[in-house]
Design a protein that fits this description.
This protein has 193 residues and is α/β, with parallel strands linked by helices. The chain is built from six helices and seven strands. Strands 2-3-4-1-5-7-6 form a seven-stranded mixed β-sheet, sandwiched between helices.
Length: 193
């Protein structure tokens, strides 16, 4: 069997750097990438393009896991820097992030759409000039009426949400693994059920 060019997928998890943000709702993208890295024995040991990066092989496919260190609102700077430096394609990218319009514990896969008020996605759209890129939205539910969204997304998950949170991190990793050996459309059909 002739070995062709090793394809590469890059998975960008959105979040904020630093221990203060580690367990917050806004950081579920980082949590999912940490779990995926630990499943496959990858280490986030490279610092480049305004990100920390782990890489290795998943399902015979080279995968780069990337956590922008720019803070959420400037995530697009890291994505752009990586694209320009490595000449990678946007259609090989998957962005993983928190979504207020999806219930905690659920994930939604999409391949295009507006930022929907998410500043990290807004920044990526701004820096790439397109709304067409693959994404896995991890549900964090909406805050109760009267609670400021900013305080909510920078808050941690209460005890009763820990189990759905863990399940959601696992299904996100399952979807990401699946997407490495299937088209994103097939992955959507399977995981948006």
């Amino acid at each position: 069997m002739q070995k062709g060019r090793l394809l590469m997928k890059w998975i960008v998890g959105l979040g904020n750097p630093g221990p203060a943000y580690e367990k917050t709702r806004h950081n579920v993208g980082f949590m999912a990438l940490d779990e995926l890295a630990s499943r496959h024995g990858f280490t986030f040991n490279q610092s480049k393009c305004k990100s920390v990066i782990a890489e290795g092989i998943i399902n015979g496919q080279k995968a780069v896991l990337m956590k922008p260190m720019t803070y959420m609102n400037l995530s697009g700077e890291a994505v752009r820097a990586y694209m320009d430096y490595y000449k990678v394609h946007l259609d090989d990218m998957i962005v993983v992030y928190d979504d207020l319009d999806t219930a905690v514990g659920r994930i939604r896969l999409r391949y295009q759409g507006s930022a929907g008020g998410h500043n990290g996605i807004k920044s990526i759209i701004q820096h790439t000039g397109t709304q067409s890129f693959n994404r896995v939205r991890m549900g964090i539910s909406r805050p109760t009426p009267g609670r400021a969204v900013v305080d909510y997304v920078l808050g941690t998950f209460p005890k009763q949400e820990q189990e759905p949170l863990q399940q959601m991190i696992h299904s996100t990793c399952d979807a990401l693994e699946h997407s490495l050996s299937h088209t994103f459309e097939q992955t959507m059909q399977r995981f948006n059920g």
